[in-house]
Amino acid sequence: MDHVDHAGHAGHAHHTAGGRVSWATAAQATLHCLTGCAVGEVLGMVIGTAFGWGNLPTMVLAIALAFFFGYALTLRGVLKAGVDFRTGFKVALAADTLSIAVMELIDNGVIALWPDAMDAHLDDALFWIALAASLVLAFLVTTPVNRWMIGRGKGHAVVHQYHH
Length: 164
Description:
Blueprint: H1 23-50, H2 55-80, H3 85-113, H4 125-151, H5 157-160
Helix pairs in contact: 1-2, 1-3, 1-4, 2-3, 3-4
């Protein structure tokens, strides 16, 4: 949907035709993805630790759960607007895939490169410090990506047509 078609709606003044998108809009979309990623990451780490898994299977689970929860948050909002599940799922994929992928690449890259972070346990301060730092860096890198995508009618902009 072209942004011109809904530019007059309250709540949509944060982006305009021609690709100009506010940093606040991009940050809000990024925080939305970050929430799902953080929930998935922590849950994956908790499950992997509880089962005594190694780093690789725990990381794979955490990434899968990050995508799951990121998509689920978007899907929940779209379904509330009365959209059928199949359409809602497509919207969630279109809205969040690149954002979550960039976020997970940065987040897991930081954890993998931070000395001893991969071996830190949930009760270690290093685990939480490295996770927090990786999520902050992921947010900072992903926000410009989301701004660029929204300005082109992609990413989180796809969800806007379902706002009431």
